[in-house]
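Hi there, hope your week has been kind to you so far. Do you reckon you could talk me through the fold, stretch by stretch? I've dropped the whole record in just underneath, so have a look:
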Amino acid sequence: MMIPKVTKLALTVAASLTLAAQLAFSMEVLVLVGLEGEDEYREVFQKSADHWRTACDTAGVDCTVLGDLEEGASSSADIRSEIQGRLAEPRGDGESLWLILLGHGSFDGREAKFNIAGGDFTARELGEWCKGIESELVVVNTTASSAPFMRALAGPGRTIITATKSANEIYFARFGTYFSEAITGISEADLDNDDQVSLLEAFLYASAEVAIFYEEQERLVTEHALIDDNGDALGTRAEWFEGTTATRTAKDGAEPDGLRAMQQVLVKNEFEKRLTPEQRTRRDELEREVRLLRRNKENTDEAEYYGKLENLLRELGGIYQSVEAVEVEVEVEVE
């Protein structure tokens, strides 16, 4: 069937807007695969790395895998040098770096480490390497004993996820397997049914699947994942969420974790792709304000509460309407 000329142009404009929005926002994913140790883990880590490649290909995002098991791991010096170089690259506003650690972790009683050939690096070292990063930073450490990496890396504008709640959870963590599946955008992990999976949703899905695994195996749970995106480095466990809303905080008066991670998505839905970086930034700010306002409803005067909520929702609606109106406006002009 022939598509009318008006529709053709509208679709072209929509696609152009999507491309322009993607080009204006720069995202990079850096996946680091550590030593597999025993042969049984090689396939596990490779499969997780492949999930990240697939997700990045779908999203049109640059993805680099270091220590690729298919090509043979680089030497420790090569990996350390390359990762330090990549982390030191200048990045500005509107740019985002996601660092994913797949492999084994360890704890010697003093420091937590990520295991790579020839010499591991510690949470403290990675924290030093990331000190100069002022743009958005996401770090997902899927290994055992990964909790200290949260303390070393957390800060404003950063989302840190670890597979364990303490350095003493030293046994192999399965969290990364489920997390990598979720990040590709599987429907089972889409808790709010918006056709995309956020970092928070992937965290909650993976945590739930880990719990199911240990229950079915009738084994003691040896890993409890944490997420931190408010910068206090304390983290929040999956059990502290109802749906995608945190009902507890690690410290009284703290902003709840999850507000930023809920808005961080690798494989975006079609509407999300059409938002400009400016629209997305403002939309995210408004949505966080709405969530915080609702959280504090009981402590806010009723008239003040509804007045603030109305203003926030009006501005939010304006952003969404402006994106939707572009295609309609072009159709009218062509006719």
Observations:
- The chain has a mean pLDDT of 86.
- The chain has ten helices and eleven strands.
- The first strand starts at residue 26 and ends at 33.
